[in-house]
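Record type: ASSEMBLY
Status: queued
Input:
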Amino acid sequence: MRPIGAGGSGNVCELKRSMPRQIGLLAALLAVVAIAYTFKGYFGAGGPAASRLGGGGPAILAGAPAQSYPVKSLDGATDALDRYRGHVVFVNLWATWCAPCRSETPDLERLYTAERSKGLVVLGIDQGESPGAARDFAREMHLDYPILLDEAQQYGRAYAAVGLPTSLVVDPSGHIVRGIDGQLTLAEMHDAVDSVLQSARTVR
Amino acid sequence: MSDYGNRALAGVAAFGGIALVLAQDAVPTWAGFHTWQYAATVALAIVTVAAYALSARRGADGPLGIRLGIAAAGAIVTMSAGIASGLLGPDTETVTRAPGTVAPLPDVGAAGFFPAADAAAIARGDAAIVIRRRDGSAVEVGPGTRRFFGTVALETAPQPAAYVEARDPRGDRVTITQPTGVAFLSPVLLFAERVTIAGHALPSDTFATPALHRQIKAFYFSKESATVAQSHGLGGREAVLFAVDDDAGRLQPGGIGFVPSGGEATIGGVRFRVSVGTYPALVISAVPDPLALLVGGVLLAGGLAFAFRRRSPQANKRAADRASPELT
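Status: finished
Output:
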């Protein structure tokens, strides 16, 4: 008598009878499905050549929550963007050495004066400079809107600034509506905030 | 070759191929997984196992060969996952971002949040990157840890970094910009370039202080390379060598000098304070699909258990009796 498993056509026939056909079919089917699933996964979202890194600039931040960092204000108190939650905030990243920032500033003051009664806050965030330089500049330009001093340049990094000035419109819920690189005219500033102020009023 | 020889060859091919596939999970950053040689080796193993399974199915290796078919299917699934990952998965990529910024990671279906880092955090070098998925779930990838996200593995690689403060001659802090760096408004240098000086490949970076009209080159000296600059009083400390030019690219008088980590020095009219350390980059590597590995593993283990299961003497006798009635 030969032990089972030692080969021979009789044993093979027996095994084919004893091993349910469905088990073999199921295993084969499972294997095919698993292999198909594995390969399909690589062709799902754009395939292997899909771009891994997005572009730069503040425009990509639209819809994202606005990051907030506690920093000093001109009067030495601690302040942060999230303290203005509930308002539409026009954030302007600037520095005293930046010529376009300097020429944009009077229009920022005009925007603030015109729209503050509608709930708009213009928030200037100086990037990387000592308080003295920003304070002198604010005095010289007769600025009324709040100025924050971001010596560690945290806002500039978080808001993907690719230059100065950089502006962002933040809605009352603290989400970025638009990110804009470069100097703006007064008309462009109004364009950027009007619809957000309108929707904020409708919600109220 | 004998039936036993074919079986042994298929076994070696299966377990060798599976070992190569599992190695992707163990050392996912190895570039060899994305070469044609790796794919060809695993493909050869698959063909060997598949050829054995087909011939065994026809009875060439007896009852055991037939029972081993399920295990062979499992081995093929596992090895296919390895080939798919090696050929179609993304090559290993290192994502470098400035502290406090976010990097979209389409291959992961998530975004990488690079933590804000002050001078102390750079010096400690213990920052962890947070990976946030679209469903809101988040995991931290810290130093020395590896996280698996479907078909990718994520780990961090410490990169040389320096937190720089620059001041004008009156002592007022001035803005640092990096027009060619990973973030325009960042005082953290990440030294993405390499420059050879006196036979040493040094990490280097550039930045500007627009308020002072200065363009500055910075070279990172690790503790090891700092020993070559002992004469500058570094005492084996990490340091940054600065070269200060004006906007026209003219080197300023006294415009080259070392600043050791934690120290201050005036170079080319700019007062620098530096904290040297590391900041993590995110390393993304392809790994085999875990679901395919699970299915393959279950089929393999189940198939082997089924093939080599111990049967009772009575069952063996009944089977043998049915198979060879003339001998009973």
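Annotation: Chain A touches chain B through 67 residues (CB under 8 Å).
Annotation: The first strand of chain A starts at residue 71 and ends at 73.
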